[in-house]
Amino acid sequence: MHTQTIFELSQEAERLLQLALQNLDTLKSMPVAMLDSATAAISGGNNNVLPLHFSARGVDAQQAMLNNELRKITRLEMVLAIVGTMKAGKSTTINAIVGTEVLPNRNRPMTALPTLIRHTPGQKEPVLHFSHVVPIDALIQQLQQKLCNSDRGKLTRRLEIDKDMNALLERIEKGEAFEKHHLGAQPIFHCLKNLNDLVRLSQALGVDFPFTEYASIEHIPVIEVEFVHLAGMDPHLGQLTLLDTPGPNEAGQPHLQKMLSEQLARASAVLAVMDYTQLKSISDHEVRQAISAVGKSVPLYALVNKFDQKDRNSDDEEQVRAMISGTLMKGNISPGQIYPVSSMWAYLANRARFEMTANGCLPNHQEQRWVQDFAEAALGRRWRMADLDNAEHIRHAADLLWEDSLFEQPIRKLIYAAYANASLFALRSASHKLLNYAQNAREYLEFRYQGLTVAFEALELNIARLEEDMALLQTRQNVVSDEVQHEVSQALCATDYSIAQQKLWLQTSIEHVFSNGNILDLAGIDSRDLRHKAEEGLQQLVLEDEGQAQIVLSKIRSSCELIMLDAQSKISRELALRFDQLESTLARSLNEAMRPIETRIKEQLSHAGFRARISFPAFQANQLNFNTRALFNDAIAMDNRPAGQPSAAGSVRETVSRWLNNPGWGWEDYVETRTRYVIDVGQLHDKFKQHIDQFCEQIRKALAAQVDVSVTAGMATFFAEFSLCLTGLQESLRDSLAVRQQNEHSTRALSQLLKQSITTATWIQEDTRLLRDDIQTLFAAEQP
């Protein structure tokens, strides 16, 4: 590592950050009050549209972001934000990265506040520092007053009260202050549980939790511990810190989406933890939206957790990488930065290896539940107590489990690299954010400055024209909505036709499976043997041996399963193609409808002497993804037990019942276990045909509902962003008009201030480009 060069670059980054913060202070002295009211009117409280860059709220947000970068530069700290839904396995993943348990795992949400986990060499036992506890203590006093006047019985009905919550309620009633330091895993767990329970309790009692007090990263809890995988490595310039962020679906708190976006924007890089079993769920989509929004300025990585749950029909590693990179993340992340893993296996393997190294044996499995989980994962379901006494066997099993977890690759390629290049990650993060600031500041300031140089009448005229354009925007929105609905209707009709074709193919294929000749062939019966023919065709198959009946039924099931899997693959490919086309068509329709307004505005402002840049939002329509695989998986159950084993009769009945998605189909109607065994082939065939009909109808309804929700949400965001952009232009002109109506001295003073600020923003932009290029050169030199 080029220590002297890093030091010089960090000094330059610090200088530019200080300069940008001073420039923002200058901007705050300019009249921008109207921008705030306009932003609030358009974005509203529940909209995800961000505030204007240079409204008062926008300036405050940019100052907070730059101050955070300044803090990271001072420490040369690389902050890797870990983001994921509640059940994706964030805490388990962080424990696997750290190498020991520093975050608790509970079925309910555990990340009430963002939490930093900082690699601290030599700190074997984790310690949590929570210095900014004053807002929590004030909250406890509010809750104490509320509890005095509340009915404990009603509270119990509204809130799950376990022993942890009871202990917290007692502390609140006594008015005990929140402790600032916690040493050891259990005290840390207790602290984080208390924070989470305070969020739940506040919600139940109607008291606002002080989330805004923890918007600054320096105010959130910090856990210091040595990462096991980095222990003993040569020290590097800079620090590596993980940031555990609340998932957008945690604790039923709508504000968490905004908090998540703010924290990600301040990170040096983002690691998304995705649930392999829920890759296209709504909550998983919210996470993808949040990380895509910061993807241009922050490096993105992804761990696809629970990959141990894949079966032989699931996508393999390369297919998962390609699907996430292309379909789910729209190219915002490269396949090489996506790692399918099992965080639970990695955590259990780490924990076992740590215990074996430290103590030579595992703890009592009855006292520590993770030992049972490890034994089942590493030794199999039939593990015995004696297995745990063989130290060499346990070490070998832990190593194999670590290998099977596939966690070695992200540790080496991401965590080692992040640790070795922490200072460069911190510098690159600062340079990207500085460039974004400088570009936006120059455009805004130049527009404001131009507003002081054009004729007074031109200002009034352009303000009036913008009002007309905003009215035209509303009209065009209504027209486009009709066009979009037409495109959606056509896409759904085409999809209905495709599903109908597949349904016909399914019915034909199933007819063949249940045909007389095929059933007799599966049973190994000569069709010329009249004893096995039914009274009306082959409606019943009569066999003398129960084992043979089970084998025949298994063959029928396997044949149908192959047909359904083939149909699943065809429909999935067809839907992916059609809805990629739909998304492109809708984006083109919106752009074409809005382009005349955009062109007209630019021409009008250009004639008046302005140079306006309108950032046209991209229409994503929530990416229009459809979980067709899950619909099929509900219809098919795999049974790998060999036919004919003593308990097979019951399990075959159970398997086929689940396979038909109809637990009450009544096996006794098909097989009679007396002196002969009868399979009612005709009734089984009818049940399966009904299942196909129900499935096709189900998928049609699910698609229609998903498209409606996705398109409505996507269009609402698109037009809100475009309208907000126009409002920003209009209010900037009004600010200029307001200044022009003052005396000439005020106009000249503001003009001079704007010119100085433009010059400063230009210097920042040019110097930051040079800084970024130097950092990129160092990054390239550090690559193996």
TrEMBL record:
Pfam family membership, one: Dynamin_N
Sequence ranges assigned to domain Dynamin-type G in this UniProt record: 74-412
One function term, GO molecular function aspect: ribosome binding
Sections of the chain in a coiled coil: 449-483
CDD domains: Ras_like_GTPase
Record key words, sorted: Coiled coil
InterPro entries: Dynamin_N, G_DYNAMIN_dom, P-loop_NTPase
Name this protein carries in UniProt: Clamp-binding protein CrfC
Gene: crfC
